[in-house]
Amino acid sequence: MPLSPELRQAIAEKGYERPTPVQAASLRPILDGKDLIVRSKTGTGKTAAFGIPLLERVPAGTGEPRVLVLCPTRELALQVAGELAGLGKHKGSRVVAIYGGASMDQQIRALREGAELIVGTPGRILDHLRRGTLDLSHAQAAVLDEADEMLSMGFFEDVTRILDQLPRERQTLLFSATVPQDIRQIIETYLRDPETLLLSGDDFTVEGIENVIYYTVDSYPKPRNLLYLVELEEPETAIVFCNTRTDSSLVAAVLNRNGYDADLLNGELPQKERERVMGKVKAGDVRFMVATDIAARGIDISDLSHVINYSLPEDPAIYLHRVGRTGRIGKKGTALSLVGGRELVTLTALEKRYGIHFTERKLPTPEAARKLWTDRHIAALREAAGNAVFEAFIPLAQSLRERPDGEYLVAFALKSFFHYRQRNLALQRSLVGGLPEPAPPPPPAGMPERRRGERRRSSSRETVSRRLYLTWGEEAPVAAELARALAAESGLDEAGLAAALEVDGRAAFVTLPAAEAERLLGLNGGVAGGRPLRVEPARSGGRPPRRRRR
């Protein structure tokens, strides 16, 4: 490929060795300045397909917006911005991410400092255009990324308003998995004699993915169906898709309560929290991400082994977008789905309209699931015991058997053991091959950590711990029971809470990272485990909050 040494260096650092078909086919037309329509399946490397030639074509160091990339969601905008920043770092190309839910002032400062590539969501891009804080009069290229998803989310008017403000002689690139009618309207109005690359059919099936269904069992609650599915399949990492925010909150709480490391991502979360969750998932620090469709559009997670559909979506096409989160760029993946009731309509449409073949498996009985769970954990304990010296703790184990609270204490110790074992396994997976992964690229300009000083202050705020004061009903709390109740309501890790709780009479104190403390503060005035809960910041020195005199 005719690429500069700076781009070659960045590509090598990312570990790319050969281009995917969409990357190879797109390079020459984009370098030549042609308008392009690319229809390619999800997970085929479309970001690098337009990013590499645009970075090669657009001069760095001008500080003027030369490329505009529109994305349907904040998460995808951040993902694309990060990818472009990594590819362009040795050329000196600057990237600004523009999206809702983040500080407008920081984005304005970033735009004033200058950048050649702007990546954003249509609504926030329009906000900056109206304010006059974003000038696209020198833009050479516009990219509509995941255009079919963007337009299905109702962005047609916003997208056309933005395109109307760009220079008429610009290059326009449209990347999409399907080409619905809205896209055809944009093609006819805004693209000039475009070249078309049809690297996938418009039926948009996803290859390399095994599609498996489990018919739900009505004799026990649906969350229990999910637990039995997870126990039988034992996925290494997975996104669990839910149709509603309520379901996503319930599923995340149930998974955590039953010892599975899970975090929640839905549209109700503030942007900072959504970024934190995505960071944990991509770093391998959490096994399950529970998400709604709106929150997970276009997300790219390396080595995601499974997608789980807690419920099938009403629109069959959404199923295809969901399962495209796994099996990316030639890898294999598995899609597991719980099916029952009205979801049979979606299942039939997927089979007939898209020709998807589903393998049917049966959920285990409660007894069989419990035996699977027990045998697997005993085997893990035996494996760990074979490499450890633990005889000094045998008297303690014998004493615990005789104590009335012994089972609770042993359960807590087991939860802690398996929690840290899971973290270690995730770390080992990230270091397969014996070499550490390349250092991540610096965050794109315009993200919340904008200036050097601000980045340091922001980082210190996010990592600082906060001490909270809690009361739980009228009786003195038991740490293990309080931790269980808090974990069920907040989705935080039960073992971590139990380890951090300090009981003092009828009250308790807990010291947590700021983000986790905020989640507990959100429970103040509610009910946990059937008892009224009060959560407040402790005073300096860890003292209870001062009561106001009436």
General description of the model:
With 550 residues, this protein is an alpha/beta fold. The chain has 4 domains: 5-198, Rossmann fold (3-Layer(aba) Sandwich); 209-367, Rossmann fold; 371-429, no CATH class; 460-542, RRM (RNA recognition motif) domain (Alpha-Beta Plaits). Helices cover 45% and strands 17% of the residues. The strands form 3 sheets. Strands 3-4-2-5-6-1-7 form a 7-stranded parallel sheet, sandwiched between helices. Strand 12, helix 14 (316-323) and strand 13 (333-339) form a beta-alpha-beta unit. The relative contact order is 0.10. Mean pLDDT is 82; it is low at 431-443 and 445-463.
Topology:
Elements: H1 5-13, H2 21-31, E1 36-39, H3 46-57, E2 67-70, H4 74-88, E3 95-98, H5 104-113, E4 117-120, H6 122-131, E5 141-144, H7 147-152, H8 156-164, E6 171-176, H9 181-190, E7 195-198, E8 209-215, H10 222-233, E9 238-242, H11 245-257, E10 262-265, H12 271-282, E11 288-292, H13 293-296, E12 306-309, H14 316-323, E13 333-339, H15 343-353, E14 358-361, H16 366-385, H17 394-402, H18 406-430, H19 452-463, E15 465-472, H20 479-490, H21 494-500, E16 501-504, E17 507-513, H22 514-521, E18 527-528, E19 531-537
Parallel strand pairs: 1-6, 1-7, 2-4, 2-5, 3-4, 5-6, 8-13, 8-14, 9-11, 9-12, 10-11, 12-13
Antiparallel strand pairs: 15-17, 15-19, 16-17, 18-19
Helix pairs in contact: 2-3, 3-4, 6-8, 11-20, 17-18, 18-21, 20-21
